[in-house]
Amino acid sequence: MEFASSGIWLIVALLAIVYYYFHRKFSYWKDRGVPYIEPNFPLGNLNWKHTGNLRKLFDKLYNAGGETPFVGGYISIKPVVVATDLDFVKDVLVKDFSNFHGRGMYVNEKDDPVSGHLFSLDGPKWKSLRMKLSPTFTSGKMKYMFPTIVDVSEQFNQTLGETLHKVKEIDVKEILACFTTDVIGSCAFGLECNSLKDPDTVFRKYGRMIFERSKTRSIKRVIFLLPKLAAILRLSVFSKEINNFFMGIVRQTITHREKNNVRRNDFMDLLINLKNSGSLDEEKKTKLEELTLEEMTAQAFVFFAAGFETSSTTMMFALYELALSLDIQERLRTEINTVYTKHEGRLTYEAIKDMVYLDQVINETLRKYPPVPALQRIAQADYKVTNTKLVIEKGTTVMIPAYQIQHDHRYYPNPEKFDPDRFLPELWKARHPMTFLSFGDGPRNCIGLRFGRMQSRVGLAMLLKNYRFEVSKKTPIPMKFSKSGGILSPLDGMHLKITKI
After folding, report:
1. Helix (H, G, I), strand (E, B), or coil: what is residue 9?
2. 446 belongs to an annotated ligand binding site
3. Are 55 and 368 in contact (CB under 8 A)?
4. CATH T-level assignment (fold) for domain 107-375+435-500
5. Domain-by-domain residue ranges, the chain?
6. What's the number of CA atoms in the CB half-sphere (13 Å) around residue 380?
7. What is the Cα–Cα distance from 281 to 193, expressed in whole angstroms?
8. 354: helix, coil or strand?
9. Which terminal residue of the chain, N or C, has fewer Cβ atoms less than 10 Å from its own Cβ?
């Protein structure tokens, strides 16, 4: 009896110690006078229930702001900064980028080579890769890739026309993903994916696998929020099957091109050049290291994954808003037809640049539906916040809620209204530069933003010239977002009524 009593008191004592430990950890922001949302014991704010619903979580955090330029949250017991002030956002992304250049993403290059891509890497390796890959996305390179995108868009037009002979209402989310998969497959790998003709083709299959949700991946997502624990467990971000597929494709493509002296002026050509000769660091005038097969695969992988999903989602939300606002749709169609006529009925690189209102529609779509709802940075050293006594300690995660900023009525009156005229040059210039973060900002902004914009412009120009889009009984009104995945997307697809013009 005495032994049992001692055991009970031991358990009580241990529980008291644990409670005190968490209480002290969860007092971090309170002790510093920073507004915060009360964390949930023991997983903080960003627990497994929230991993697929960050938008609503950030709504609460963003609206809890006070006089400080950020509010406090918690990943487990780890304090997290959630930015609410645009000048502070600019300091993090641009002015003091040297102290916030890392994202703090989990990477396991040994067991999971494709995870070692530009988006996730930090430090010198990120800087070296960014420098090597930047030449791929210049306006000159975009011109080289443009005809390929137009060719795929013409196949898209033919496939969609054949589909509409059978049905008038389709899920545009899936067919747009097939279009962008074929574009990226061609530009990144030089391969005809044929997703438009066969939605179950191998590239489309692996594209779905990258973003699919499962219980196992949900558990991993939580652990990835704690990179040191994930490293101890040697977790892989992506499955062995995905790694083997992309490694095989890249290896075969390299072998074929080098053996047959094939040049296509695409992303793979640049990677092959970097594999064989490295590149020059213009700042230090020193030669950068050559890329390994694993490094090449990781970069081709992220170009494929990010390129097909974000662009298809942007076009999907644009068509949704245009179906809801037929007057805007007609105005845009008039511009597209006018520009086609000006350029002798051909869709050229110069013609796309002339479609100014199309660009405004895409910008407004990205404002209202940013593909990545929040940006993440890690403090590399203790950082004193401008005009305050606050210090962000080394290793602290800084989250920038792009969705909330781009829906803030202070910057965009009536933010739920779809209004492309918000992006008239004079209005855009008058706003704070950090009010539009759909491509990030600063030295670590989206490296593929030119390509993504071009792909979306070509796809939308072709679609709106040839088809009229309207809502149907299955169209999600109001919009309901999926709680899974890191890319903002609708809960149950995007069904629209389509009529050939």
Report:
1. helix
2. yes
3. no
4. Cytochrome p450 (1.10.630)
5. 107-375+435-500
6. 12
7. 35
8. helix
9. N
